[in-house]
Amino acid sequence: MTVCREHVPAPTLPRDEVLSDPARCHLSADGRCLLCFDAQTQAGAIFDLLQQTWLVHSPITAEQWIRALVVADLRPQHVDAQEWRELAALATGAGNARH
After folding, report:
1. Cα separations (Å) of 99 from 38, 72, 90, 95?
2. pLDDT tens digit sequence for 41-90
3. How far apart are the C-alpha atoms of 57 and 37, rounded to whole Å?
4. CB-CB neighbours of 44 under 10 Å
5. Which of 19, 49, 92, 97 is the most exposed place for a label (fewest CB within 10 A)?
6. Quick one: which of 97, 25, 24, 35 has its CA closest to 69?
7. How far apart are CA 35 and CA 25, in angstroms?
8. Do the Cβ atoms of 47 and 33 come closer than 8 Å?
9. Which residue has the higher pLDDT, 56 or 98?
10. Sign, CA torsion 18/23/24/25
11. Where are the domains of the chain?
12. pLDDT tens digits, residue range 4-43?
């Protein structure tokens, strides 16, 4: 039997000042999750209010973060449905056909 060991770095978390800033943390449209992205640490975090659990994506770019939210169907509350459909189309590549 062969045993391989690989070092996996710990995820980077959003900074405290980002997590505590209502301008950078948003409730999901369904009210189920808190969504936060920190561009400086390249970390995105989703807090599920019902399960009281965090899901951290790190490292992740802003574009990858949007894609992750699209895949998880987590529209931020401050983004209207039409704008969300447009972002989702761009994130999934459907917007490329328009150019």
Report:
1. 30, 26, 11, 8
2. 999 999 999 999 999 999 999 989 999 999 898 999 999 999 998 888 88
3. 9
4. 24
5. 97
6. 35
7. 6
8. yes
9. 56
10. positive
11. 16-93
12. 888 777 778 899 999 999 989 999 999 999 999 999 999 9
List C-alpha distances in Å: 87 to 8, 14, 19, 34, 72: 32, 23, 23, 19, 14
In three-state secondary structure terms, 6 is coil
- Which amino acid appears at position 38 of this protein? D
Q: Can you read off the two tokens belonging to residue 12?
A: 């980077």
Q: How far is CA 2 from CA 5, 6, 7, 35, 57, in A?
A: 10, 13, 17, 41, 30
Q: Are 66 and 92 in contact (CB under 8 A)?
A: no
